[in-house]
Amino acid sequence: MLAEIITIGDEILIGQIVDTNSAYISKELNRIGVQVYQITSIQDDRQHILRALEDAKKRADIVIVTGGLGPTKDDITKETFCEYFNDTLVESPEVLQNIQNIFSKYIKKKPLPANIRQAMVPSTAQVLQNPNGTAPGIWMEKDNTVFVSLPGVPYEMKHLLTDEVFPRIIKKYNRPYIYHKTLLTYGLGESAVAERIEEWEDNLPKNIKLAYLPSLGRVRLRLSSTGKDKDELEEAVNSKMNELRQLLDDIAVGFEDETNIVERIASLLTQRKQTLSLAESCTGGSIVKEITAIPGASAYLKGSVVPYETHKKVSVLGIDKTLIEQHTVVSAPVAQAMAKQANKLFETDYAVATTGIAGPTKGDGDDEVGTVFIAIASPMRVECQKFSFGNHRERVILKATNKALELLLKEILKN
Amino acid sequence: MLAEIITIGDEILIGQIVDTNSAYISKELNRIGVQVYQITSIQDDRQHILRALEDAKKRADIVIVTGGLGPTKDDITKETFCEYFNDTLVESPEVLQNIQNIFSKYIKKKPLPANIRQAMVPSTAQVLQNPNGTAPGIWMEKDNTVFVSLPGVPYEMKHLLTDEVFPRIIKKYNRPYIYHKTLLTYGLGESAVAERIEEWEDNLPKNIKLAYLPSLGRVRLRLSSTGKDKDELEEAVNSKMNELRQLLDDIAVGFEDETNIVERIASLLTQRKQTLSLAESCTGGSIVKEITAIPGASAYLKGSVVPYETHKKVSVLGIDKTLIEQHTVVSAPVAQAMAKQANKLFETDYAVATTGIAGPTKGDGDDEVGTVFIAIASPMRVECQKFSFGNHRERVILKATNKALELLLKEILKN
Question: Fewest CB atoms less than 10 Å from the CB: which of A135, A242, B185, B194?
């Protein structure tokens, strides 16, 4: 049961956009037991589309194509599908009705001829109605391979995938069960982790695969297996994962995908009716942005301040000016005072504070670029740690954000 | 002069990570006149890698492969290159030296056997030294096609691409010049834009291609051309772009890629020695994060506050409580007061404020999910606009962030 994804659009091949659709589709297909064999990004070009469709047909049972369905002249996916399936375009009354509804409800104008043309679909296609846009999805079959064409707009694609494509796949195919479980570790490099678990890894059963996913300051370890019996499979993977977790007990922080770290913080604080505030200097709003991205933040987040200019740490946050003069603005005492003052200003139980030098230039401190102090104030204490996150601004901010969330979670779990 | 990109890693095909390397490599190759024909993401699987290399060789002059170079057992790219090139792995003394340097300088431990093995390279490969990591890049040739293998870690890949791969490509190949120019418009849908410029589009010269790139609330229009004479090419595209800009004068906001919108705001405020603050409620730190992501923000950004809880708008930002009671917290008067108070609190010239309902639930206001008020306070006035950004939390925050930056830039340009 293999699928392939083809994303169409010159904008991908000149690097104007990052293709996020493929990762989304892959993850969702995996969930329903469909393995993605290959992802191919190609140009808005007739010959190229035809070849990619034919190549994918040789390997896959399902081919999901995104992009090239817009109302303008550079969009040629539908016409090329017709050529590939030796079909012609006909107007679909139901799609036309949907287009007219969207225009009267949201755009409050009559559809243009280009929009009306979007109601044209290959005569043998099953139409997948798109309530969020004017381009319909289509489902066609050739030599036992299913071809699905979806709009490239992520929001429209996602709804069509869930509401129209997946029910048809689930009905049509008997799928195996695919199970992944990922352990999140930090503080040890990929090769050091590998060395520690070598003997265990060598004795893994053949049907369980281990992958190492290193990223900034972390290594994620993923166990995967495919099979027919859901319970048996989960039990086998979970049992190996328990062994792995014990081997890495000192560096493991939890499992991925169950919930992300912000969701864990959110659920703990909400349950306990405790509250959070932040005072971010060098992370510049990056932490609070992660927190407010998850619905329900208002249950525990009272607020945040970014006192970017040194003087604003005094005038807005109420840090003692002499403390800054004595220790410099990038220091543990200032980070701790920022956390304490955030708790006071926002009347919260927990506060996170960051001060450091994101770079590329040194700013108001004496320390090296990449130096960051992270303080966590809890109802019990204020703790602070110093880090060196290297000399690349984007990475310093990202590493400090990840580390601050980790330290906050650990502190909450202690109490 | 065509290139292809092959990204290797099961984590891409199960959707655990988004492949951002391909977009970066494509964009950079374009800059030096190399067109990317196809991007292919494949599994850490010997057969799959061999087939992808052979397929790409048929179509491309340069094949850039990323991923699968780590020290652990699931990384097999180097071994598979050896098989494809009928070669064997030998230890590279210079790579070994680099690995030892990295361990003694950053990790302060002796390299493990798995790291030492990273010094093994195919005997006929040109080694591309990686000062930022232990996995070297390699450059090999077969039947007039160049194959480059780079680590998948974005930071290491980017440096190797710029410092090692590009100088070799530039030396080896005579490349045409590729020129893109992209106009940013907002406020009109893709098909309405297309209708307005239809006659102009039909008369475009054959060697200039137009593409429509719709995204949240905006349509970007990209003109592209390829040729040998840089000046002639740029003149032809720029002249057509001027015509296009005139046709769309009322909805055009500028050109993309010259500088992004934050960079334009940063350069104007820095030049004028003016300052900025923010009070973000529903955008939850998303705007200040965009601003601090660009180096040099400390020249004009004084600070930001996220008064997430309604009461904190009173206690921290100093909004009049009766104003909130009279108009509700999601209202133009409150947004305007937030912007004014941010200017006061942070002693700045410009302030941006947002209040709204990001969803999925309604929160403290009476309005529909997606309602957002954005206020901009300048030295001259405070303006506010109301928007309806739909009912998808992530999109509401993103649309409000983009719109707020647009309104700020427009206001700065007025003064």
Answer: A242
